[in-house]
Protein backbone atom coordinates (compact mmCIF):
# COMPACT_ATOMS: atom_id res chain seq x y z
CA UNK A 1 0.00 0.00 0.00
CA UNK A 2 2.20 2.80 -1.22
CA UNK A 3 -0.37 5.45 -2.03
CA UNK A 4 -1.71 5.68 1.50
CA UNK A 5 -5.19 4.50 0.58
CA UNK A 6 -6.83 1.87 2.76
CA UNK A 7 -7.07 -1.59 1.25
CA UNK A 8 -10.76 -1.93 1.94
CA UNK A 9 -13.49 -2.09 4.56
CA UNK A 10 -12.29 -3.23 7.93
CA UNK A 11 -8.72 -2.25 7.16
CA UNK A 12 -7.23 -0.06 9.90
CA UNK A 13 -6.91 3.51 8.76
CA UNK A 14 -3.28 4.57 8.54
CA UNK A 15 -1.86 7.80 9.92
CA UNK A 16 -1.57 8.85 6.32
CA UNK A 17 -5.37 9.02 6.11
CA UNK A 18 -5.86 11.21 9.14
CA UNK A 19 -7.70 14.32 8.07
CA UNK A 20 -6.05 17.70 8.35
CA UNK A 21 -7.27 21.21 7.63
CA UNK A 22 -4.96 23.01 5.21
CA UNK A 23 -7.12 25.85 3.88
CA UNK A 24 -9.77 28.19 5.31
CA UNK A 25 -12.35 30.38 3.60
CA UNK A 26 -15.15 32.40 5.16
CA UNK A 27 -17.65 35.06 4.40
CA UNK A 28 -19.40 36.25 7.54
CA UNK A 29 -21.30 39.18 9.00
CA UNK A 30 -18.11 40.36 10.69
CA UNK A 31 -15.62 39.88 7.86
CA UNK A 32 -15.31 39.29 4.13
CA UNK A 33 -12.77 36.50 4.54
CA UNK A 34 -11.34 34.23 7.23
CA UNK A 35 -8.59 36.60 8.50
CA UNK A 36 -11.02 39.56 8.64
CA UNK A 37 -13.60 37.43 10.44
CA UNK A 38 -11.03 36.22 12.94
CA UNK A 39 -9.70 39.71 13.66
CA UNK A 40 -13.21 41.12 14.08
CA UNK A 41 -14.11 38.36 16.53
CA UNK A 42 -11.02 39.02 18.63
CA UNK A 43 -11.93 42.72 18.71
CA UNK A 44 -15.52 41.98 19.67
CA UNK A 45 -17.01 43.55 16.54
CA UNK A 46 -20.68 42.69 16.03
CA UNK A 47 -22.20 41.91 12.65
CA UNK A 48 -25.80 42.43 13.77
CA UNK A 49 -27.61 45.50 12.42
CA UNK A 50 -31.04 46.87 11.63
CA UNK A 51 -32.70 45.72 8.40
CA UNK A 52 -32.93 48.84 6.23
CA UNK A 53 -35.38 47.50 3.64
CA UNK A 54 -38.98 48.66 3.93
CA UNK A 55 -40.33 45.11 4.09
CA UNK A 56 -39.04 44.78 7.63
CA UNK A 57 -41.10 47.73 8.84
CA UNK A 58 -44.21 45.59 9.27
CA UNK A 59 -42.41 42.69 10.99
CA UNK A 60 -41.81 42.23 14.71
CA UNK A 61 -38.14 41.47 13.93
CA UNK A 62 -36.17 44.19 12.17
CA UNK A 63 -32.58 43.05 12.81
CA UNK A 64 -30.30 40.59 11.03
CA UNK A 65 -26.63 39.85 10.37
CA UNK A 66 -25.88 40.26 6.65
CA UNK A 67 -22.41 39.49 5.30
CA UNK A 68 -19.85 42.26 5.87
CA UNK A 69 -18.80 42.32 2.21
CA UNK A 70 -21.32 41.98 -0.61
CA UNK A 71 -20.34 39.00 -2.78
CA UNK A 72 -21.00 40.98 -5.97
CA UNK A 73 -17.97 43.13 -5.16
CA UNK A 74 -15.73 40.15 -5.81
CA UNK A 75 -17.55 38.48 -8.70
CA UNK A 76 -17.91 39.18 -12.41
CA UNK A 77 -21.30 40.35 -13.69
CA UNK A 78 -22.00 37.02 -15.37
CA UNK A 79 -21.27 35.20 -12.11
CA UNK A 80 -23.73 37.28 -10.10
CA UNK A 81 -26.39 36.65 -12.78
CA UNK A 82 -25.73 32.94 -12.88
CA UNK A 83 -25.31 32.12 -9.21
CA UNK A 84 -27.84 32.57 -6.44
CA UNK A 85 -26.62 34.49 -3.40
CA UNK A 86 -25.91 31.36 -1.35
CA UNK A 87 -23.91 29.95 -4.27
CA UNK A 88 -21.94 33.20 -4.57
CA UNK A 89 -20.99 33.09 -0.89
CA UNK A 90 -20.04 29.40 -1.06
CA UNK A 91 -17.94 29.81 -4.20
CA UNK A 92 -16.05 32.78 -2.78
CA UNK A 93 -15.29 30.88 0.44
CA UNK A 94 -14.13 27.88 -1.60
CA UNK A 95 -11.82 30.07 -3.71
CA UNK A 96 -10.36 31.61 -0.57
CA UNK A 97 -9.83 28.24 1.10
CA UNK A 98 -8.26 26.78 -2.05
CA UNK A 99 -5.77 29.64 -2.38
CA UNK A 100 -5.08 29.53 1.35
CA UNK A 101 -4.20 25.84 1.01
CA UNK A 102 -1.76 26.63 -1.79
CA UNK A 103 -4.04 25.27 -4.54
CA UNK A 104 -3.09 21.62 -3.96
CA UNK A 105 -2.53 19.79 -7.21
CA UNK A 106 -5.03 16.94 -7.13
CA UNK A 107 -6.29 14.60 -9.87
CA UNK A 108 -10.02 15.30 -10.47
CA UNK A 109 -11.05 11.81 -9.37
CA UNK A 110 -9.28 12.32 -6.01
CA UNK A 111 -10.88 15.75 -5.29
CA UNK A 112 -14.38 15.86 -3.77
CA UNK A 113 -16.87 18.48 -2.61
CA UNK A 114 -19.09 18.30 0.49
CA UNK A 115 -20.77 21.68 0.88
CA UNK A 116 -24.28 22.01 2.17
CA UNK A 117 -26.90 24.59 2.88
CA UNK A 118 -29.91 24.68 5.16
CA UNK A 119 -32.17 26.50 2.75
CA UNK A 120 -30.37 26.32 -0.59
CA UNK A 121 -31.43 28.99 -3.02
CA UNK A 122 -34.83 29.63 -1.50
CA UNK A 123 -34.24 33.39 -1.82
CA UNK A 124 -33.60 33.05 -5.55
CA UNK A 125 -36.70 30.91 -5.92
CA UNK A 126 -38.87 33.45 -4.14
CA UNK A 127 -37.45 36.28 -6.26
CA UNK A 128 -38.27 34.32 -9.41
CA UNK A 129 -41.77 33.65 -8.10
CA UNK A 130 -42.23 37.43 -7.98
CA UNK A 131 -41.03 37.61 -11.60
CA UNK A 132 -43.48 34.87 -12.60
CA UNK A 133 -46.45 36.64 -11.06
CA UNK A 134 -45.52 40.10 -12.28
CA UNK A 135 -44.07 39.42 -15.74
CA UNK A 136 -44.91 35.85 -16.79
CA UNK A 137 -42.96 32.66 -17.28
CA UNK A 138 -41.08 33.93 -20.31
CA UNK A 139 -39.17 36.34 -18.03
CA UNK A 140 -38.03 33.68 -15.58
CA UNK A 141 -34.28 33.07 -15.43
CA UNK A 142 -33.44 29.79 -17.19
CA UNK A 143 -31.24 29.16 -14.15
CA UNK A 144 -34.10 29.42 -11.64
CA UNK A 145 -33.90 25.75 -10.66
CA UNK A 146 -30.09 25.48 -10.64
CA UNK A 147 -30.07 28.58 -8.40
CA UNK A 148 -32.61 26.99 -6.09
CA UNK A 149 -31.42 23.40 -5.74
CA UNK A 150 -29.92 22.47 -2.39
CA UNK A 151 -26.80 20.97 -3.95
CA UNK A 152 -26.26 24.08 -6.09
CA UNK A 153 -23.44 25.59 -3.98
CA UNK A 154 -21.57 22.27 -3.94
CA UNK A 155 -22.21 21.74 -7.65
CA UNK A 156 -20.76 25.10 -8.72
CA UNK A 157 -17.67 24.42 -6.60
CA UNK A 158 -17.32 20.98 -8.21
CA UNK A 159 -17.56 22.53 -11.69
CA UNK A 160 -15.09 25.32 -10.96
CA UNK A 161 -12.44 23.14 -9.32
CA UNK A 162 -13.01 20.07 -11.49
CA UNK A 163 -13.78 18.01 -8.39
CA UNK A 164 -14.95 14.74 -9.87
CA UNK A 165 -14.51 12.24 -7.02
CA UNK A 166 -17.87 12.79 -5.29
CA UNK A 167 -20.29 15.63 -4.61
CA UNK A 168 -22.28 15.83 -1.37
CA UNK A 169 -24.73 18.35 0.06
CA UNK A 170 -26.26 16.87 3.20
CA UNK A 171 -29.35 18.91 4.10
CA UNK A 172 -29.26 19.13 7.88
CA UNK A 173 -30.79 22.55 8.60
CA UNK A 174 -28.58 24.44 11.05
CA UNK A 175 -26.19 21.49 11.37
CA UNK A 176 -25.58 21.37 7.61
CA UNK A 177 -22.11 22.90 7.60
CA UNK A 178 -20.85 20.59 10.34
CA UNK A 179 -22.52 17.60 8.70
CA UNK A 180 -20.78 18.38 5.41
CA UNK A 181 -17.41 18.60 7.17
CA UNK A 182 -18.13 15.23 8.79
CA UNK A 183 -18.93 13.86 5.34
CA UNK A 184 -15.74 15.31 3.95
CA UNK A 185 -13.77 13.62 6.70
CA UNK A 186 -15.41 10.29 5.90
CA UNK A 187 -14.53 10.62 2.21
CA UNK A 188 -10.86 10.96 3.08
CA UNK A 189 -10.85 8.27 5.77
CA UNK A 190 -12.57 5.79 3.48
CA UNK A 191 -10.12 6.49 0.69
CA UNK A 192 -12.68 7.96 -1.73
CA UNK A 193 -10.77 11.23 -1.97
CA UNK A 194 -7.47 12.80 -0.95
CA UNK A 195 -8.67 16.41 -0.84
CA UNK A 196 -12.17 17.70 -0.09
CA UNK A 197 -13.61 21.19 -0.25
CA UNK A 198 -16.08 20.99 2.63
CA UNK A 199 -18.34 23.38 4.48
CA UNK A 200 -21.65 25.16 4.36
CA UNK A 201 -23.42 28.31 3.23
CA UNK A 202 -26.76 30.01 3.71
CA UNK A 203 -28.33 33.27 2.57
CA UNK A 204 -31.89 33.55 3.76
CA UNK A 205 -32.41 37.10 4.94
CA UNK A 206 -35.68 37.33 3.04
CA UNK A 207 -39.05 38.67 4.25
CA UNK A 208 -40.79 35.29 4.37
CA UNK A 209 -37.88 33.64 6.18
CA UNK A 210 -37.60 36.39 8.78
CA UNK A 211 -41.39 36.35 9.20
CA UNK A 212 -41.40 32.54 9.39
CA UNK A 213 -38.80 32.42 12.14
CA UNK A 214 -40.60 35.30 13.87
CA UNK A 215 -43.84 33.31 13.70
CA UNK A 216 -42.01 30.53 15.55
CA UNK A 217 -40.96 33.15 18.14
CA UNK A 218 -37.40 31.99 17.48
CA UNK A 219 -35.80 35.38 16.77
CA UNK A 220 -34.66 38.09 19.13
CA UNK A 221 -36.88 41.16 19.01
CA UNK A 222 -34.33 43.48 20.53
CA UNK A 223 -34.76 45.77 17.51
CA UNK A 224 -33.55 48.89 19.28
CA UNK A 225 -30.24 47.27 20.25
CA UNK A 226 -29.01 45.12 17.33
CA UNK A 227 -25.51 44.54 18.73
CA UNK A 228 -26.98 43.47 22.06
CA UNK A 229 -29.57 41.16 20.52
CA UNK A 230 -27.76 37.82 20.53
CA UNK A 231 -27.08 36.92 24.16
CA UNK A 232 -25.97 33.32 24.62
CA UNK A 233 -26.45 32.11 28.21
CA UNK A 234 -27.62 35.55 29.35
CA UNK A 235 -30.75 35.82 31.48
CA UNK A 236 -32.15 38.39 29.03
CA UNK A 237 -31.74 36.24 25.90
CA UNK A 238 -34.84 36.21 23.70
CA UNK A 239 -33.91 34.35 20.54
CA UNK A 240 -31.33 34.10 17.79
CA UNK A 241 -30.38 36.64 15.13
CA UNK A 242 -30.74 35.53 11.52
CA UNK A 243 -27.40 35.74 9.74
CA UNK A 244 -25.91 34.66 6.42
CA UNK A 245 -22.51 33.56 5.23
CA UNK A 246 -20.30 30.69 4.19
CA UNK A 247 -17.40 28.67 5.51
CA UNK A 248 -15.30 26.24 3.52
CA UNK A 249 -12.28 24.20 4.58
CA UNK A 250 -9.78 22.34 2.49
CA UNK A 251 -9.62 18.94 4.14
CA UNK A 252 -6.72 16.79 3.15
CA UNK A 253 -5.33 13.35 3.89
CA UNK A 254 -2.43 13.91 6.29
CA UNK A 255 -0.02 12.01 4.04
CA UNK A 256 -1.05 14.04 1.01
CA UNK A 257 -0.56 17.29 2.93
CA UNK A 258 2.80 16.18 4.33
CA UNK A 259 4.13 15.19 0.91
CA UNK A 260 3.51 18.66 -0.47
CA UNK A 261 4.69 20.41 2.69
CA UNK A 262 1.33 22.06 3.37
CA UNK A 263 0.66 24.24 6.39
CA UNK A 264 -1.74 22.47 8.75
CA UNK A 265 -4.13 24.51 10.91
CA UNK A 266 -5.50 21.53 12.82
CA UNK A 267 -6.64 17.96 12.47
CA UNK A 268 -10.34 17.26 11.95
CA UNK A 269 -10.01 14.38 14.32
CA UNK A 270 -13.57 13.18 14.80
CA UNK A 271 -17.22 13.68 14.07
CA UNK A 272 -20.38 12.48 15.80
CA UNK A 273 -24.02 12.69 14.81
CA UNK A 274 -27.29 11.94 16.57
CA UNK A 275 -30.98 12.69 16.42
CA UNK A 276 -33.16 13.89 19.31
CA UNK A 277 -36.30 12.12 18.02
CA UNK A 278 -38.14 14.48 20.32
CA UNK A 279 -39.69 17.53 18.58
CA UNK A 280 -39.62 19.09 15.11
CA UNK A 281 -38.03 22.32 16.32
CA UNK A 282 -37.46 22.37 20.08
CA UNK A 283 -34.36 20.76 21.56
CA UNK A 284 -34.69 17.88 23.98
CA UNK A 285 -34.24 19.63 27.36
CA UNK A 286 -32.49 16.55 28.74
CA UNK A 287 -29.62 17.24 26.32
CA UNK A 288 -29.43 13.53 25.59
CA UNK A 289 -29.19 13.84 21.81
CA UNK A 290 -26.64 16.64 21.92
CA UNK A 291 -24.56 14.71 24.46
CA UNK A 292 -24.70 11.58 22.29
CA UNK A 293 -23.33 13.50 19.29
CA UNK A 294 -20.47 14.90 21.41
CA UNK A 295 -19.62 11.49 22.86
CA UNK A 296 -19.61 9.93 19.42
CA UNK A 297 -17.31 12.67 18.13
CA UNK A 298 -14.93 12.10 21.06
CA UNK A 299 -14.95 8.34 20.52
CA UNK A 300 -14.35 8.81 16.80
CA UNK A 301 -11.35 11.01 17.58
CA UNK A 302 -10.05 8.78 20.36
CA UNK A 303 -10.14 11.78 22.69
CA UNK A 304 -11.14 11.56 26.36
CA UNK A 305 -13.55 14.18 27.76
CA UNK A 306 -10.77 15.47 30.03
CA UNK A 307 -8.63 16.24 26.98
CA UNK A 308 -11.10 18.79 25.61
CA UNK A 309 -9.53 22.20 26.17
CA UNK A 310 -12.05 24.25 24.28
CA UNK A 311 -15.64 24.21 23.02
CA UNK A 312 -17.18 26.38 20.33
CA UNK A 313 -20.77 26.10 21.47
CA UNK A 314 -23.84 26.13 19.27
CA UNK A 315 -25.51 28.59 21.72
CA UNK A 316 -27.73 30.70 19.49
CA UNK A 317 -29.28 32.74 22.28
CA UNK A 318 -32.61 30.92 22.51
CA UNK A 319 -34.00 30.12 25.94
CA UNK A 320 -34.41 26.39 25.35
CA UNK A 321 -31.42 25.72 23.10
CA UNK A 322 -28.76 27.28 25.32
CA UNK A 323 -30.14 25.51 28.39
CA UNK A 324 -30.17 22.09 26.69
CA UNK A 325 -26.61 22.53 25.42
CA UNK A 326 -25.38 23.45 28.90
CA UNK A 327 -26.94 20.26 30.30
CA UNK A 328 -25.33 18.21 27.53
CA UNK A 329 -21.90 19.79 28.04
CA UNK A 330 -22.05 18.94 31.73
CA UNK A 331 -23.03 15.33 30.99
CA UNK A 332 -20.16 14.84 28.54
CA UNK A 333 -17.32 16.88 29.98
CA UNK A 334 -18.22 16.74 33.67
CA UNK A 335 -15.51 18.26 35.84
CA UNK A 336 -13.40 18.75 32.68
CA UNK A 337 -15.54 21.80 31.94
CA UNK A 338 -13.70 23.70 34.65
CA UNK A 339 -10.42 23.67 32.76
CA UNK A 340 -11.91 24.33 29.33
CA UNK A 341 -12.69 27.55 27.53
CA UNK A 342 -15.99 28.16 25.76
CA UNK A 343 -16.47 30.42 22.73
CA UNK A 344 -20.01 31.65 22.02
CA UNK A 345 -19.27 33.32 18.70
CA UNK A 346 -22.88 33.72 17.58
CA UNK A 347 -23.08 36.61 20.04
CA UNK A 348 -21.12 38.54 17.38
CA UNK A 349 -21.94 36.80 14.10
CA UNK A 350 -25.60 35.93 14.61
CA UNK A 351 -26.75 32.49 13.51
CA UNK A 352 -25.55 31.63 10.00
CA UNK A 353 -27.87 28.58 9.82
CA UNK A 354 -26.34 26.00 7.47
CA UNK A 355 -23.10 27.98 7.35
CA UNK A 356 -22.79 28.19 11.13
CA UNK A 357 -21.13 24.82 11.73
CA UNK A 358 -18.60 25.45 8.97
CA UNK A 359 -17.73 29.02 9.95
CA UNK A 360 -17.43 27.94 13.58
CA UNK A 361 -15.18 25.03 12.60
CA UNK A 362 -13.00 27.58 10.80
CA UNK A 363 -12.98 29.70 13.97
CA UNK A 364 -12.16 26.63 16.08
CA UNK A 365 -9.27 25.70 13.78
CA UNK A 366 -7.92 29.24 14.14
CA UNK A 367 -8.41 29.10 17.91
CA UNK A 368 -6.22 25.99 18.06
CA UNK A 369 -3.74 27.38 15.53
CA UNK A 370 -3.23 30.74 17.26
CA UNK A 371 -3.93 29.61 20.82
CA UNK A 372 -6.36 32.49 21.26
CA UNK A 373 -10.07 32.26 22.13
CA UNK A 374 -12.51 34.83 20.73
CA UNK A 375 -14.63 36.47 23.42
CA UNK A 376 -18.41 36.38 23.72
CA UNK A 377 -20.38 39.58 24.19
CA UNK A 378 -23.71 40.39 25.83
CA UNK A 379 -23.30 37.94 28.71
CA UNK A 380 -24.09 40.79 31.08
CA UNK A 381 -26.41 38.98 33.44
CA UNK A 382 -25.57 35.27 33.33
CA UNK A 383 -28.58 32.97 33.59
CA UNK A 384 -27.95 31.10 36.84
CA UNK A 385 -29.93 28.09 35.61
CA UNK A 386 -27.22 27.48 32.98
CA UNK A 387 -24.81 26.52 35.76
CA UNK A 388 -21.58 28.05 37.03
CA UNK A 389 -19.35 25.48 35.36
CA UNK A 390 -20.50 26.50 31.88
CA UNK A 391 -20.81 30.19 32.65
CA UNK A 392 -17.30 30.41 34.08
CA UNK A 393 -15.85 28.74 31.00
CA UNK A 394 -17.30 31.30 28.59
CA UNK A 395 -14.54 33.69 27.52
CA UNK A 396 -15.65 37.32 27.65
CA UNK A 397 -14.28 40.80 28.18
CA UNK A 398 -11.41 40.17 25.72
CA UNK A 399 -9.71 37.23 24.03
CA UNK A 400 -8.73 34.21 26.11
CA UNK A 401 -5.59 32.15 25.88
CA UNK A 402 -5.52 28.46 25.08
CA UNK A 403 -2.77 26.56 26.89
CA UNK A 404 0.17 25.49 24.73
CA UNK A 405 0.77 21.89 23.81
CA UNK A 406 -1.63 19.16 22.88
CA UNK A 407 -5.18 20.40 22.74
CA UNK A 408 -8.48 19.19 21.38
CA UNK A 409 -11.63 21.19 20.83
CA UNK A 410 -15.31 20.48 20.21
CA UNK A 411 -17.48 22.44 17.81
CA UNK A 412 -21.21 21.88 18.24
CA UNK A 413 -24.06 22.30 15.77
CA UNK A 414 -27.67 21.49 16.53
CA UNK A 415 -30.59 21.85 14.15
CA UNK A 416 -34.33 22.00 13.79
CA UNK A 417 -35.52 18.45 13.28
CA UNK A 418 -33.41 17.37 16.25
CA UNK A 419 -30.26 16.84 14.20
CA UNK A 420 -27.02 17.09 16.17
CA UNK A 421 -23.47 17.14 14.82
CA UNK A 422 -20.31 17.59 16.86
CA UNK A 423 -16.80 17.88 15.48
CA UNK A 424 -13.50 17.34 17.26
CA UNK A 425 -10.53 19.34 16.06
CA UNK A 426 -7.07 18.75 17.42
CA UNK A 427 -3.74 20.53 17.31
CA UNK A 428 -1.11 18.72 15.29
CA UNK A 429 2.14 18.38 17.15
CA UNK B 1 -34.95 55.10 -35.28
CA UNK B 2 -33.10 52.28 -36.95
CA UNK B 3 -29.91 51.19 -35.26
CA UNK B 4 -26.70 50.64 -37.18
CA UNK B 5 -25.17 47.19 -37.33
CA UNK B 6 -22.28 48.45 -35.22
CA UNK B 7 -24.61 49.65 -32.49
CA UNK B 8 -26.43 46.34 -32.44
CA UNK B 9 -23.16 44.39 -32.36
CA UNK B 10 -21.93 46.48 -29.43
CA UNK B 11 -25.20 45.79 -27.59
CA UNK B 12 -25.01 42.05 -28.29
CA UNK B 13 -21.38 41.96 -27.16
CA UNK B 14 -22.43 43.62 -23.91
CA UNK B 15 -25.19 41.05 -23.40
CA UNK B 16 -22.72 38.21 -23.99
CA UNK B 17 -20.37 39.79 -21.49
CA UNK B 18 -23.03 40.20 -18.81
CA UNK B 19 -24.62 36.77 -19.29
CA UNK B 20 -21.55 34.65 -20.08
CA UNK B 21 -18.50 36.70 -19.13
CA UNK B 22 -17.23 36.85 -22.72
CA UNK B 23 -14.87 39.75 -23.39
CA UNK B 24 -16.65 42.13 -25.81
CA UNK B 25 -13.71 42.11 -28.25
CA UNK B 26 -14.24 38.37 -28.80
CA UNK B 27 -17.85 38.80 -29.90
CA UNK B 28 -17.37 39.36 -33.60
CA UNK B 29 -20.04 38.57 -36.22
CA UNK B 30 -18.29 35.42 -37.45
CA UNK B 31 -18.16 33.75 -34.00
CA UNK B 32 -20.46 30.77 -33.41
CA UNK B 33 -22.20 30.81 -30.01
CA UNK B 34 -21.62 27.16 -29.20
CA UNK B 35 -18.46 26.22 -31.09
CA UNK B 36 -16.44 29.41 -30.64
CA UNK B 37 -17.80 31.12 -27.54
CA UNK B 38 -18.83 28.03 -25.53
CA UNK B 39 -22.31 29.40 -24.81
CA UNK B 40 -24.57 26.70 -23.34
CA UNK B 41 -28.27 26.27 -24.07
CA UNK B 42 -29.47 27.82 -20.80
CA UNK B 43 -27.36 30.90 -21.45
CA UNK B 44 -28.83 31.14 -24.98
CA UNK B 45 -32.31 31.45 -23.46
CA UNK B 46 -31.07 34.14 -21.12
CA UNK B 47 -29.45 35.95 -24.06
CA UNK B 48 -32.85 35.80 -25.78
CA UNK B 49 -34.56 37.29 -22.74
CA UNK B 50 -31.98 40.04 -22.39
CA UNK B 51 -32.22 40.79 -26.11
CA UNK B 52 -35.90 41.48 -25.60
CA UNK B 53 -35.18 43.78 -22.65
CA UNK B 54 -32.50 45.70 -24.49
CA UNK B 55 -33.78 45.85 -28.06
CA UNK B 56 -37.50 45.21 -27.59
CA UNK B 57 -37.21 42.29 -30.02
CA UNK B 58 -39.15 39.08 -29.28
CA UNK B 59 -37.01 36.02 -29.84
CA UNK B 60 -39.18 32.86 -29.91
CA UNK B 61 -37.48 29.52 -29.21
CA UNK B 62 -37.94 28.31 -32.81
CA UNK B 63 -36.16 31.39 -34.16
CA UNK B 64 -33.48 31.19 -31.47
CA UNK B 65 -32.57 27.67 -32.56
CA UNK B 66 -31.73 28.99 -36.03
CA UNK B 67 -29.19 31.51 -34.75
CA UNK B 68 -25.71 30.02 -34.99
CA UNK B 69 -23.42 33.03 -34.90
CA UNK B 70 -23.22 36.47 -33.32
CA UNK B 71 -23.81 37.85 -36.81
CA UNK B 72 -27.05 35.83 -37.10
CA UNK B 73 -28.36 37.48 -33.92
CA UNK B 74 -27.28 40.95 -35.05
CA UNK B 75 -29.10 40.41 -38.36
CA UNK B 76 -32.20 39.11 -36.58
CA UNK B 77 -32.38 42.20 -34.38
CA UNK B 78 -31.74 44.50 -37.35
CA UNK B 79 -34.46 42.86 -39.47
CA UNK B 80 -36.96 42.88 -36.60
CA UNK B 81 -36.25 46.59 -36.17
CA UNK B 82 -36.96 47.18 -39.86
CA UNK B 83 -40.24 45.27 -39.90
CA UNK B 84 -41.46 46.80 -36.65
User: What is the SS-derived class of chain B?
Assistant: mainly alpha
Radius of gyration of chain B: 11 Å
Order of helices and strands of chain A: EHEEHHEHHHEHEHEHEHEHEHHEHEEE
Distance between the termini of chain A: 25 Å
Structure explained in plain terms:
The complex is a heterodimer of chains A (429) and B (84). Chain A has 429 residues and is an alpha/beta fold. Chain A is 34% helix and 18% strand. Chain A has two domains: 17-259, Thiolase/Chalcone synthase (Peroxisomal Thiolase, Chain A, domain 1, 3-Layer(aba) Sandwich); 271-426, Thiolase/Chalcone synthase (Peroxisomal Thiolase, Chain A, domain 1), CATH 3.40.47. Chain A has helices spanning 34-43, 77-82, 85-100, 122-135, 144-148, 152-161, 176-189, 207-215, 254-259, 288-301, 319-333, 346-349, 356-370, 388-393, and strands spanning 19-27, 49-50, 63-64, 111-116, 167-168, 195-202, 245-253, 266-275, 308-312, 341-343, 372-373, 400-401, 408-415, 419-426. In chain A, the strands form three sheets. A ten-stranded mixed β-sheet of chain A has the order 5-4-6-7-1-8-14-13-9-10, with helices on both faces. In chain A, strands 2-3 form a two-stranded antiparallel sheet. In chain A, strands 11-12 form a two-stranded antiparallel sheet. In chain A, strand 13 and strand 14 (419-426) form a beta hairpin. Residues 7-11 of chain A have low confidence and may be disordered. By secondary structure, chain B is mostly helical. Chain B contains four helices and no strands. The longest helix of chain B has 16 residues, at 5-20. Chain B is globular and about 30 Å long. The termini of chain B are close together.
What are the key terms here?
heterodimer, A: 429 residues, alpha/beta, Peroxisomal Thiolase, Chain A, domain 1, 2 domains, ten-stranded mixed beta sheet, two-stranded antiparallel sheet, 14 strands, B: 84 residues, mainly alpha, Non-ribosomal Peptide Synthetase Peptidyl Carrier Protein, Chain A, 4 helices, 58% helix, 0% strand
Amino acid sequence: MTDGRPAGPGCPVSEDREVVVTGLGTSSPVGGDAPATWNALLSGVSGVRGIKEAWADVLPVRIAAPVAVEPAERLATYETRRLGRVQQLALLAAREAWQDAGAPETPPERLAVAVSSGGGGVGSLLDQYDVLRERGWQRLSPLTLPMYMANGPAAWISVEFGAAAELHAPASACASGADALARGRELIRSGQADVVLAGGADAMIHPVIVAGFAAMRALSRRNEDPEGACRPFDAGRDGFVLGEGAGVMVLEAAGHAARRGARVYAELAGAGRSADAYHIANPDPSGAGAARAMRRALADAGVKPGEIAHVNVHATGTTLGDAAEAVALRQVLGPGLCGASVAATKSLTGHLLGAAGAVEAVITALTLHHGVVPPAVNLDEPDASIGDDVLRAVVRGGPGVLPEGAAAALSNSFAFGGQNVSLVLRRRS
Amino acid sequence: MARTEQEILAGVAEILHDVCGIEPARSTVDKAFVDDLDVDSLSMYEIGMTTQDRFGVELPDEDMRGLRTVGDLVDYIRMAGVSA
